Amino acid sequence: MMEQSSLVDAMLDHRNDLSDVKSVDSVFSSDSGVMATSEIFENDLQSITTEKLFNELQRVKEDLQSKDSEIRRANEIRENTNREIEDLTVSLFETAHSMVEQAKYTQANAEQKLKISNQTIDALSLKNSQLKKTVNELKQILNTCRSSFNMSTTNNSIDNILFREFTCWEEKSSLE
């Protein structure tokens, strides 16, 4: 292709010289045949130029068709990419929304468990303090009982008559 264009360019350069040739041809008579040769050369040059232009036009058309198909493919790729981005964005927001909802549910559940745990701790603390108070009261009662028991152990005599009556009564009630 480059060789053909350089050949055509060389011919075009000689075309400029044709105007000089015509002026020279006008000096010569038309009978000499110089004019006929220049017309043939000019016709050949025009056909070569026309052919070159036609070939160039065909090449440009092919390039345009190629560019059009590339543009169509690029537009399809862009549309597909935009659809994918939109789908991914929707999916991302749905996932984020789901995660937020799950986090809210988990937080509410944890807060409920914390509230129940705090109530249980408060109830157990109250029972613990009541038990401590009861234990202290029992210790005091035991201490007073021990001290009174220690005092009464010095006088350990039993009334024998009363004891016999008690045992008789106990035997009668068990038989009945």
TrEMBL record:
<comment type="similarity">
    <text>Belongs to the SEC2 family.</text>
</comment>
<dbReference type="Pfam" id="PF06428">
    <property type="entry name" value="Sec2p"/>
</dbReference>
<feature type="coiled-coil region">
    <location>
        <begin position="50"/>
        <end position="91"/>
    </location>
</feature>
<dbReference type="GO" id="GO:0070319">
    <property type="term" value="C:Golgi to plasma membrane transport vesicle"/>
</dbReference>
<dbReference type="GO" id="GO:0006887">
    <property type="term" value="P:exocytosis"/>
</dbReference>
<feature type="domain" description="GDP/GTP exchange factor Sec2 N-terminal">
    <location>
        <begin position="4"/>
        <end position="143"/>
    </location>
</feature>
<dbReference type="InterPro" id="IPR009449">
    <property type="entry name" value="Sec2_N"/>
</dbReference>
<protein>
    <recommendedName>
        <fullName>GDP/GTP exchange factor Sec2 N-terminal domain-containing protein</fullName>
    </recommendedName>
</protein>
<dbReference type="InterPro" id="IPR040351">
    <property type="entry name" value="RAB3IL/RAB3IP/Sec2"/>
</dbReference>
<dbReference type="GO" id="GO:0005085">
    <property type="term" value="F:guanyl-nucleotide exchange factor activity"/>
</dbReference>
<keyword id="KW-0175">Coiled coil</keyword>
